[in-house]
Design goal:
The chain is α/β, with parallel strands linked by helices. Helix content is 33%, strand content 19%. The protein contains 8 helices and 8 strands. An 8-stranded mixed beta sheet has the order 1-2-4-3-5-6-7-8, sandwiched between helices. Helix 2 packs across helix 3. The longest helix has 14 residues. It is globular and about 45 Å long.
């Protein structure tokens, strides 16, 4: 584990691969931490075209600070500060679920920082109907701040409309990976998100919400060629 100051807090992170290799930022789902990506990170770092892989713990998770404030925009700004602190000007960004929402906000806000964007089983930011009820308090201390869970539930129930309105600002090539019918995320919401990002395509890998864990080989078989493709290779039609 390493630590860096960014956006006024301390972020813990793991890293793999040669320091001079092309950088990839991996953003985990809610309730996990950067270790969730270890298997994928090792493969990306040690592949035929090695990459420098970074997997931070998002604020309120793992060994990063738990500051009590958990706006999605704050997490986005954490990642901007994180990359700047490491001297990374541009990176491929892969985000799963909550990490995917942070990733698309980063691509909206500062497009030049994101070379290519991968969103794993990430729904469109539409209000939930019915809203998600408050989660009951756990019997034991979880490895994340319970206030983060409540805060992100509230934002998932009623997302800021600006998130949706600014999808057209994502100009980087984007790959959406769907978890298929066994995922709790409505796959029509994943398809809807793919339809509004200008340079996006959708591939359904299956395996449920944890695609990179349940089907790592299939996940990498889609992601690696996408990251390795020449800059002008994009697809605007979901498939």
């Amino acid at each position: 584990m390493d630590f860096v100051k960014a956006n006024g807090i301390t972020l813990a992170y793991r890293s793999w691969g040669p320091e001079d290799a092309p950088p990839v930022l991996l953003l985990h789902c809610r309730g996990a931490d950067g270790a969730d990506w270890s298997g994928i990170a090792e493969r990306l770092a040690g592949g035929a075209r090695p990459r420098r892989v970074y997997a931070p713990d998002l604020r309120g998770h793992g060994r990063s600070d738990w500051p009590g404030a958990y706006a999605y925009e704050a997490m986005r700004d954490d990642m901007l500060g994180f990359l700047a602190a490491l001297g990374v000007e541009r990176a491929d960004v892969v985000g799963h679920s909550l990490g995917g929402a942070v990733a698309y906000l980063l691509a909206q806000h500062t497009p030049g920082v994101v070379r290519r964007l991968v969103l794993e089983d990430v729904p469109a930011p539409m209000p939930l109907d019915p809203p998600r009820p408050p989660a009951p308090a756990p019997d034991t201390d979880p490895p994340f701040d319970w206030a983060m869970l409540r805060a992100t539930d509230a934002q998932r129930n009623a997302p800021d409309p600006v998130w949706w309105d600014h999808m057209e600002r994502i100009t980087t090539p984007t790959l959406l990976i769907g978890g298929g019918p066994t995922s709790p995320i409505p796959q029509e919401q994943v398809a809807l998100l793919a339809s509004v990002i200008p340079a996006a395509r959708l591939v359904t890998v299956g395996g449920g919400h944890l695609v990179h864990e349940t089907r790592p080989e299939e996940f990498l078989a889609v992601v690696v060629p996408f990251l390795d493709a020449p800059p002008d290779v994009t697809s605007r039609t979901p498939s």
